[in-house]
Design a protein that fits this description.
Elements: H1 3-9, E1 21-25, E2 29-35, H2 55-77, E3 86-96, E4 105-116, E5 119-128, E6 131-142
Antiparallel strand pairs: 1-2, 2-4, 3-6, 4-5, 5-6
Length: 143
């Protein structure tokens, strides 16, 4: 799935669209990436002498790819209503293991866990060069 199709699913736009491509999709799993460039605006202040992608933005990228999976699951099972969006509702058990720097390709993976009372749960991981940078559980409501 390329950026144009991603933009038909997610409402986010530059500079807050943090998924560049989806490379693998099954009914329960999605994988994609964000190319992290030196031109990202947040690097001007985080941190100029040692630029590191803010952890909250990595979590947002993981929530966005999870949102794509959630909406696609709803479309597949016929419960999707035109115009529905994903709203990030929570995060648990976050572990930051490695910094994400300019030039990195941030690999994003999300595994569907369950849907309970309209809240969707996902196990997510972000990697750089196959090494885990962030691991967490995220939840989203599809409204």
């Amino acid at each position: 799935m390329e950026i144009d199709e991603i933009k038909t699913i997610l409402p986010h736009r530059y500079p807050f669209l943090l998924v560049d491509r989806v490379t693998e999709i099954t009914p329960e799993y999605i994988k994609g990436y964000k190319n992290v460039t030196a031109n990202e605006e947040f690097f001007n202040g985080h941190f100029p002498d040692f630029p590191v992608m803010p952890g909250v933005l990595i979590i947002e990228a993981l929530a966005q790819i999870s949102g794509i999976l959630g909406i696609l699951k709803m479309k597949d099972d016929g419960t999707y209503k035109e115009g529905q969006k994903t709203l990030f509702t929570g995060i648990n058990n976050v572990k930051f293991s490695a910094p994400v720097r300019p030039g990195d390709r941030l690999e994003l993976e999300s595994q569907y866990v369950k849907d309970k009372m309209g809240i969707w749960w996902f196990n997510v991981v972000a990697k750089v060069d196959g090494k885990i940078a962030v691991k967490a559980e995220v939840s989203a409501a599809l409204k």
